[in-house]
Structure formats: structure tokens, C-alpha cells
Amino acid sequence: MRCPFCGAIDTRVVDSRLVGDSDQVRRRRECTECEERFTTYETAELNLPRIIKSRGNREPFSDHKLQAGFQKSLEKRPVSVEAIDEAVARVKHRCLVAGEREIDARRVGEWVMEELKQLDQVAYIRFASVYRQFADAAAFREALDRLESTSAAEEVSNQLSLLDDTEPDGDA
């Protein structure tokens, strides 16, 4: 690593620590010539896949576009910045672990909708209305009905049974 003060090529690492979510290393370095100290950060370079758009054109994965999509859908909704960042990170992670060099934009959009459904139902409907290009109120109603039916089913499955599943012996 070249010294930013004198330009010397030889520097030594004085201290190394994990930072963030343990996905970055902070290194404190010292120049062997001018003895100035400076900090560097090291992260793994991960190649996110290219996105195949609906018209067939391909473009690089954009963190900015993904974040903007979440922000636009969640505008004026009671969802924390941390929750949004975690959802964005999960979508990015899914893109990485897909193991493909190119991913269809529709697939990424479906992952975003899954995350939004968990975060906020209004944001989910906002995103879905633009993403699926709802043509009329009937399409909106259909999406709302599907959302309500899946929410009701999840609530029932998350409830504990009030009745014991075992049969009484009769030997009591």
C-alpha cells in the first residue's frame, strides 16, 4: 500500500479490526519512511449479476435503483431506515447467491415485493401497482384481496392451538 503522505511503497499494518457487520476490515497502517499513520478499509469485491430488463436490454445491478424503489414505496410509512436497509441487503444477497451472471428484472421485482409485503402492506400495494402496471380498480381490488387472504392465513397458522391435540386416555 502506497503512503498517501510521502508516496513510499512500503507500509506496515499496525492494527486490524472487523467493522460493520463483520464484512469489512479496518487496517491502521504506518509508513516505514515518514512514519505517518493512516487508515484503510478492505471489503470483498462481489460481482452482482447484470439485470435483464423487460425489453431485453441488460444493465449493471444498481444499488441506487434498488434503494430508491424501496424508498419510494415506503415514503411516509412507519418503517425504520434499519428495516429498509436490511430488506435491501436481503434482496442483494439473493441476487448474489443465485449464482447467475444475469438475472431477469422480474425475478428481482418479485423478491422486492416479498420484502415489502413483510415490511408494510401499503408499500407492497404501492410497489405492486406500478410494477404490475395495474390497468384499473379491479386489478387493485384483486391484489388487495390476495394480500388480505394471505395475511389471514398467516395469522391463523401463527396462532397456538387452544385445544390439546392428544386424546384423553379415559384412565383418569
Structural summary, described in words:
The structure is a single chain. 44% of the residues lie in helices and 19% in strands. It contains five helices and six strands, in the order E-E-E-E-E-H-H-E-H-H-H. The chain has helices at 63-73, 81-97, 105-119, 121-131, 137-158; strands at residues 11-19, 24-31, 37-43, 50-52, 58-59, 102-104. The protein has a three-stranded antiparallel sheet, with no helix packed on it. A hairpin with a 5-residue loop joins strand 2 and strand 3 (37-43).
Outline:
The protein is built from 5 helices and 6 strands, in the order βββββααβααα.
Radius of gyration, whole Å: 25 Å
Structure summary, number of beta strands = 6
Secondary-structure element series = EEEEEHHEHHH
**What distance lies between the first and last C-alpha atoms, to the nearest angstrom?**
79 Å
Structural class: alpha+beta
Mean pLDDT across all amino acids: 84
As laid out across the biggest beta sheet, the strand order is 1-2-3
Shape: elongated
As for the number of domains, it is 2
Enumerate the spans where pLDDT stays under 50 for 5 or more consecutive residues. none
Q: What is the overall number of helices? A: 5
* Strand content bin: 15-25%
* Biggest sheet overview: 3 strands, antiparallel
Q: Estimate percent helicity.
A: 40-55%
